[in-house]
Amino acid sequence: MVHIVGAGPGAPDLITVRGKELLERADVIIYAGSLVNPALLDYRKAQCQVYDSAKMTLEEVIAVMAEAELKGKMTVRLHTGDPCIYGAIREQMDELEVRGIPYDVCPGVSSFCGAASALKMEYTLPQVTQSVIITRMAGRTPVPDRESIASFAAHGATMVIFLSTGMLDKLSEELIKGGYLPNTPAAIVYKATWEDEKTINCTVESLGASARRENIKKTALILVGNAVAQNGYERSKLYDPVFSTEYRKGTGEE
Ligand code: SAH
Question: Which of 9, 170, 189, 250 has a CA 20 to 30 Å removed from the CA of 36?
């Protein structure tokens, strides 16, 4: 059996309990060495075989899984963050299905949650925005035209932009073209939850300059929108003494 496991954003204790138990039991671990913290491999048992998928093709990854399956071994495929976001897992799962190899998926803490925790931030502030747009700039993987940064920027929601740290000047341009003011609050979170984590508060206009100043070129998330300033919000109805909820009677109603 193959378990596709989310490693979490970086800190080795941010993997789920289930994910850690799977790592402890694994006969084979294939981990995404470019982003997964190698400290997570310390959870493995002594005889476990380890492969770094950064140096492998899809075909090679599947061959390792297929061979392990043939020998009745258990494989953990360890992806950074949560595997459902830019994880390239669909193509693996399809290959496993073709071969009749059973698999399941164990979720993880995505880096976009790690980034919010690094900034002690709530993405969805009442009266500021109630939506988070997760997207990326087009790179080697194209982004459909209807999902351009400018078109998403028009919503004024919180945006979390993955995989785009090398294109920040262009990103600023697109965000401004879409309707964000140049001085809209923004942040760069480098290696969220790792020991060398860095957070930089800036504006939409100064994203590129800020990253250059800190020499940040990869492994970062870009957060954009008025919610980044974490002010100007209304308090929640859920915890307002006046309002009743399913669990609590409020003072404002009979
Ligand atoms: N599945 C992963 C994302 C993989 S795509 C997740 O859920 O987080 C890889 C991109 O994710 C990187 O280019 C970077 O933009 C972002 N990323 C991954 N880990 C990060 C971290 N700890 N801090 C900031 N950005 C991170």
Answer: 170
